[in-house]
Amino acid sequence: MRYLILVPDGAADVSVNGEKTPLEAAYMPNVGGLAKRGRIGLVRTIPRGVAPGSDAANLAVMGYDPKTDLTGRSPLEAISMGIELGGRDVAFRANLVTLAEGEDGGEGSGGGYAGLAIIDHASGDISDAEARVLIEYLDSALGSGDPGNGGRLKFYAGVSYRHALIVRDGPPAKSGIGDVFADYPGYALVPPHDILERQIGLYLPDDENERYILTLMEKSYALLKDHEVNLARVAKGLRPANSIWIWGEGRRPQLAPIAEKYGVKGTVISAVDLIKGIGICAGLEPVKVEGATGTLATNFRGKGEAAVDAYKRGKDLAYIHVEAPDECSHQGSRADKITSLERIDADIVGPVLAWLEANRAETGEEFRVLIVPDHRTPVVIRTHTDEPVPYVLFDSAEAAAGHTDERHAFTEHAAAAGEAIHSGRELADAFFGS
Hints:
With 434 residues, the chain is an alpha/beta fold. It has helices at 22-25, 29-37, 54-61, 66-69, 73-80, 102-105, 128-142, 211-224, 228-235, 258-262, 273-281, 300-312, 324-330, 334-363, 396-399, 412-416, 424-432; strands spanning 2-8, 39-43, 90-101, 116-120, 153-159, 162-167, 243-250, 266-269, 285-287, 317-322, 367-371, 389-395. The relative contact order is 0.23.
């Protein structure tokens, strides 16, 4: 048996003023064909009381319980980046963001750093090369190059706007990097994509244990706003990466390997360090796809080709995550989100499905396909929500028996009339036949 799990990140949406959702508007004949011949319904990937992040949702889709297995998103990203984490080390996400004065992009002008607003959580999709220069500069000034933090802090360059800050042996128990490090206190840090166009003063860390994070963010703005990389970007009409935004903290999780849970060998294919990190912790082989960016400009076809190659190398499972629909939602572009969904169908689902069907015809090996967004990201609000999402579960053996239902479709409304599943773990168990 071969298995394909495809996660179009944030694909699920809501209808506004009777308008079709992007899933309803997109031309997706391959996914639609699977929906007609398979099972559809809604699944709650985000448990009640858990923040609707891709970390919790993808853990759920892989068959884990976010309430017990989620220890923060940043350690997962750090692991994917090859960063070694000790048992007491804490990882943070350090986004490069674009800040502007409140009257230009926020809800109020305020004063100083607190009066600014995040107008772009991705810094105009800054390139890896530009971002690396900025992150290495910050590390030399605020991280490993700053003797004041005792060698405990280090910034690591990742992909585009997504980077890591590692605090060795746990964060300080009190304000100030030089204080004695104690047990990880847990923070309430806000994701930058949740507060676009809002004055950041309302969301800055203000607890005594969090004050050093605010200090790092304020200093980063002073260092980056006039950096030559950003001056060059502004001269080209591009948005500058003029501050870091620190959030998503956590420690390394301990996950039972998917091979032990479900008896399959697999690979994870994603441009996002978070998803690759979850896969690595779950025992999946990460695959790097050239040109995979996590945006609409990603290498869709390359992801499909990577899955086929994994099957040819003897893998049972390909877990393909595509960030593009989510990024288009964060940018507020319904048209781009529809385009991303159509590219997923044409360049990923079509070719992979063709290989699975050809392999079945040649060898008799059946296959199963699960297509499910990790969470909803409605374009109208440009952030995640925790409502159940539609899924398609297709089994070639069952389809061979002639099951076809024209009412089935991979849309929010059609799925609402299908089979409700109460957790991602329940869906994974059903998919793998556990």
